[in-house]
């Protein structure tokens, strides 16, 4: 049967097409209007309204039929028109669908409350364990390794068990309510009774027997309730933020919504950091307005824990409201197989791939470097601000400045990526950490020569070291959040699917814990070897220099591999686009009489005009 086209909606494919079928289509009014204004290639129409496809090289159409007819990909055009009509009827506010806003606004408020609490808890936990009697910053490496890590592992095992027997809603409340209850109980019950429940006499006896180099491990027993608060505050960051919030957000949002709104959550996080830092500063200064003999830190702690409890209840309410009034998107029931890699399998995979090995070096180097500087800085911070209220007030200012710096860096990060590329962006974080780290350790090790200079600025070498260390932490963390994390995630993009999935699993299993605990293990070794953190400072400075140098070398190596893979991927995309562009023609036997067939391919191909 010859290929025919009815100008009022019947579309026929070329003569003798393989597997082609005649399709019927009723165009929508919007589609007719859109296609009637397009410049279409001319198509010859016979007087009876029918057309024979002799060749796709010479096609003509009358102006009358152009206004009445349409030519399109049948199903795709109809679906697009239908979607356009339905989308236009969807209610919107500021260009965003109302159903989307009902999800995104509560999620944004939840994220704000969670991170507001996390900033208060993070600042408070440091004040408790560093300024407590019989303790110092030397407790932090031991606390992270021997208390925080085991409890995190135990919690995740318990969470896995509960997830098998509880619904998602019940699991959310079962996890977050104990956190809220504990922080409220700590502020109003445990801290006021700390002098009664802490075994200080036993700790003093053991310290006299073992020596001062064991002050860090013994301090964990001496102030066990403060250490428990430290761990619960750390778990709030990893469990409530990473597991509960992002798990819930991924459950109720679509991929398109996530691409559009997830970056805004990052900016909102830094807004929460700014406001919570001001809150910590305000309540830490309450001591100035209290009478003599009043424990100002206890009063401040009660006020801040009351805010934490209130924010926690607000999180629960928002979670209930979303589940009650927001419809969840439909998901495919087909589950993708996830790579289950043990520690040894992850190590083998890391060693076998140079690309993944360099990426792993970046992750481990950041974790070790930031820990080496941060603990040393907090030891100087205690020396400068021994009072809990003064220490907490300074940490409030520190959190506010970190939020402002990170917010600014996030706005500038897009310019850095566009102007200078991935390589420069990946090297900024180690460069910032190296420069500020050298300045910080120089003030500590060579404070004497710098004393006249800093005295002209109205500071002591100790205070100057505290400020430089604060700047080092602020700039390092803002660079990490705005540049290092995006660079790390972008590095996975050009990898093939197998390497991408296995590489990320390997880095999550090995490198993240190794980076976090590696610095703590180095500091523990130095403290037990040289007797104190202050005595080991010169060696920590040398170790930091070596680690950042290896970090920069890995970033340079990874830059070349990343650019090569991205070029190959772009070339493949261009080749795919080129191969998809085919000139549709009919077979030689169907060519018009007298038309040359030397330029015609051997086979006929269907077309969409």
From TrEMBL:
This protein's name: ADP,ATP carrier protein
Recorded superkingdom: Eukaryota
Protein family membership: Belongs to the ADP/ATP translocase tlc family.
GO cellular component: chloroplast membrane
Presence of keyword Mitochondrion: no
Organism: Brassica campestris
Polar residues composition bias: residue spans: 595-609
Main localization of the protein described in the UniProt heading: membrane
Spans through the membrane: 104-121, 141-159, 171-191, 223-249, 261-283, 303-326, 393-412, 424-447, 453-475, 525-554
Keyword Cell membrane found: no
Topology term for the membrane: Multi-pass membrane protein
One Pfam family recorded for the sequence: TLC
Keywords linked to the UniProt accession: ATP-binding, Chloroplast, Membrane, Nucleotide-binding, Plastid, Transmembrane, Transmembrane helix, Transport
Location(s), subcellular: Membrane; Plastid, Chloroplast membrane
One of the record's GO molecular function terms: ATP binding
Spans annotated as Disordered: 576-609
